[in-house]
Structure to design on (391 residues):
């Protein structure tokens, strides 16, 4: 009986287990995770903070799913070491788990820049249910929050705190919000909508330090301004969890390097999700983790599937506003583009020799999947370009 071991119970690890079981009804599947919950919707953690979703509703796979699929899920289990030669991993409770095939789906962790005072009480980063619980508990008796980072997760956390009645100020190093998803014009529209909601912004601002004795009481910016704050959320991106790469002898750069089968340089060891790097790209987005988990699971069970990369496209809501972006958004305005806009809507396609290479849709995402299909097919849209953006 084949022994499958998966480290990590996020979307990549869970999807891999699901696909292994479809091909191998008898193999033993074990999932190790330091999380306290079965696979849950990490994307809904801000709904939990705002009170719109309870903890039970976050769970995507109930205990019955693991029982029905004969998956041995070990919660609160931290993997501390590995021995690739003996094909075993070690856990913090002094247990050993052997495997024939291993999947590294350890995900990523919040990156906290070296900001003076970031270790004070009341400073948080949001990545897991534990983080969300701590943020919610601290927020109960506080009124003023500062977010360091104007990326997607930061803005969503800020909106959750706003819904709790908190005063929220966003500090962003770039001159615009969501620099990966929006160009200058789109970001200005989003900023205007959010200011109407009650957000305050400091754009193009660098954080010098977090003030307070043992607990936070402010955020000091370069230039001298200090923002009053009873809690701080740092949202400065994520980094892959690579602690097990060296013990397993895995090749890494930005993540664990994998081939089209999601296999690493070590036979029998696969990687998928945020921890994986394919052709120099660590995707770090949910659709890629889902697709990689599926392909890794198929190949671990002896099937044949090939990963060809994932279009860098996101369809999401930012503070309740529909946003979709894909490909080259032409933030520097150097390429040919078509734009449809008003006070609440901003829709843009970026063109290269008659083909769509990028897209932004803010406020109305109708037709986004059609556009990304055209991008993937590299279709010449010269004759229909003016019709594509009509809502």
């Amino acid at each position: 009986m084949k022994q499958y071991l998966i480290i990590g119970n996020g979307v990549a690890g869970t999807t891999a287990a699901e696909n292994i079981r479809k091909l191998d009804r008898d193999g033993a599947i074990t999932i190790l995770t330091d999380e306290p919950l079965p696979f849950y919707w990490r994307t809904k953690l801000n709904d939990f903070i705002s009170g719109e979703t309870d903890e039970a509703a976050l769970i995507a796979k109930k205990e019955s799913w693991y029982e029905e699929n004969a998956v041995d899920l070990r919660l609160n289990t931290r993997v501390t070491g590995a021995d690739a030669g003996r094909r075993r991993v070690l856990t913090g409770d002094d247990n050993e788990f052997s495997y024939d095939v291993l999947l590294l789906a350890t995900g990523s962790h919040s990156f906290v820049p070296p900001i003076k005072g970031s270790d004070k009480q009341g400073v948080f980063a949001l990545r897991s249910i534990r983080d969300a619980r701590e943020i919610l508990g601290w927020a109960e008796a506080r009124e003023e929050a500062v977010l360091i980072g104007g990326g997607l997760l930061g803005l969503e956390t800020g909106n959750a705190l706003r819904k709790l009645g908190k005063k929220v100020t966003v500090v962003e190093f770039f001159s615009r919000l969501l620099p990966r998803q929006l160009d200058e014009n789109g970001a200005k529209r989003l900023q205007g909508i959010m200011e109407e909601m009650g957000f305050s912004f400091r754009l193009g601002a660098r954080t010098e330090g977090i003030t307070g004795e043992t607990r936070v009481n402010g955020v000091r910016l370069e230039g001298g301004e200090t923002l009053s704050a009873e809690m701080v959320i740092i949202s400065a991106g994520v980094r892959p969890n690579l602690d097990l790469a060296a013990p397993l002898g895995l090749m890494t750069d930005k993540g664990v390097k994998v081939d089209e089968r999601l296999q690493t340089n070590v036979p029998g060891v696969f990687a998928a999700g945020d921890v994986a790097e394919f052709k120099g790209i660590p995707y770090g987005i949910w659709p890629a983790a889902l697709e990689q988990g599926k392909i890794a699971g198929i190949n671990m069970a002896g099937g044949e599937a090939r990963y060809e990369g994932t279009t860098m496209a996101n369809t999401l809501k930012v503070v309740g506003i529909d946003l979709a972006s894909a490909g080259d958004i032409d933030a520097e305005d150097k390429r040919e583009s078509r734009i449809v806009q008003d006070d609440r809507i901003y829709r843009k396609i970026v063109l290269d020799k008659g083909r769509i290479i990028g897209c932004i849709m803010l406020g109305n995402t109708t037709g986004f999947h059609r556009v990304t299909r055209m991008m993937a097919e590299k279709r010449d849209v010269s004759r229909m370009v003016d019709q594509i953006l009509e809502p």
